[in-house]
Amino acid sequence: MNHFHYKNGELYVENVPVGRLAGKVGTPFYCYSTATLVRHFEVLRDALAGLDATICYAVKANSNLAVIRTLAELGAGADVVSEGELRRALAAGVPPDRIVFSGVGKSKRELELALDKGILQINVESDAELEELSQLAAGKGRQAAIAIRVNPDVDANTHAKITTGRKENKFGIEWTRAHQVLQQASRLPGIEVTGVAVHIGSQLTELHPFREAFRRVRDLVLMLKADGLAIRRIDLGGGLGVPYDPRNENPPLPGDYADIIRETLGDLGCQLVVEPGRLLVGNAGILVSRVLRVKEGATRTFVVCDAAMNDLVRPAMYDAYHEILPINEALPGTELLPVDVVGPVCESGDTFARQRGLPALARGDLIAFATAGAYGATMASTYNSRLLVPEVMVKESVFAVVRARPTYEDMLALESLPRWMHQPAE
């Protein structure tokens, strides 16, 4: 469910017209709906009712402080994969004891910071990381609460670039070795083995990969408990998909996902951690852009807008689909014309849609790329020396700019010429 709707022929975010935001902020910009964030969190929380489950929001999906804080105020923890994300979660008010640190390449500095902050859990992904963490924790006189991330060799049936649970992926420890590694971990100084973690990919649209992965985790936990290891927590990762194309995609509902958890793991007496990202924020955001011009090519029509692949890279990177909504609603029966919607970046890959049926658009018209709340702003760059776009949050009838658009002076100030070069005249 989202809170982007047409009212009197104009697209609104909750009770704020998108055109008004564009006039205040300029285009392109991201816009997030507080009501949608709250609704999605509550639906998942209610689906997990009766389970000892903690929802740790996957910050990589959208790391804006206002987004993290909105979810934290509802009781969410955070799943982080870098020092920057850990610092963002703390700055947004997430308690350290509700933070999980995941990721295959944690640096010494990041591990030390996690230890110093006393976070809930570090998900260890290799023997080498385990050894390093043991040395660091013992040197500080601390006990590092860890889970071993298991790679269950399960095909998530998602895009190859966002699958993480097959044996050829870089993530986790092969599930057939996990028992041995956990036994080793239990004997290391500075290490407190708390559980097992698994995450098989993102944007899953079927339930059976979850069931298969969770069953393997179940078998491992029962084996470890039989050996006397006090496994008290199971981290299930995230991955449940959202409908980018509502006409052709129908991912499982959170209630169905929760039923799989109950079926496979509900009787083990363990605390459960779930780490949704896209599920909470995907449909809560749009990217608003203005049409620069309509260009008639030799074989097709191009709608050139002021947003580009550096602002929303998913179509270029994953061939991802995003619904495109004209801000001014088309009248019933309006003819839809096949157009390519492209940006101004000097790459042929800077294409949001090919031969998409849209009502006639003209210079100055506003459009919105839907379901852009996840992996939009967080993956943006300054390619072509384009400025990062601002982010706006709406709550009912009010809005706030929660990340300002930088100036070109801000961008240039990050760089300097070496002293042996002649300085440009001012």
Polypeptide structure, described:
With 426 residues, this protein is α/β, with parallel strands linked by helices. The chain folds into two domains: 4-31 and 282-413, Lyase, Ornithine Decarboxylase, Chain A, domain 1, CATH 2.40.37.10; 33-278, Alanine racemase (TIM Barrel). It is built from twelve helices and 21 strands. Helix 5 (108-117) crosses helix 6, helix 7 (175-186) runs parallel beside helix 8 (208-226) and helix 8 packs parallel to helix 9 (254-265). Residues 155-167 have low confidence and may be disordered.
Can you summarize this structure?
This protein has 12 helices and 21 strands.
The CATH superfamily of the largest domain appears as Alanine racemase
Uncertain segments are 155-167
What's the number of helices? 12
N-to-C CA distance: 53 Å
- What does the largest sheet look like? 9 strands, mixed
Instruction: Please estimate the helix content.
Output: 25-40%
Any idea of the CATH class of the largest domain? Alpha Beta
Radius of gyration over C-alpha positions, nearest whole angstrom = 23 Å
CATH topology of the largest domain: TIM Barrel
* Number of distinct beta strands: 21
- Which architecture name of the largest domain does CATH use? Alpha-Beta Barrel
Number of domains: 2
Shape: globular
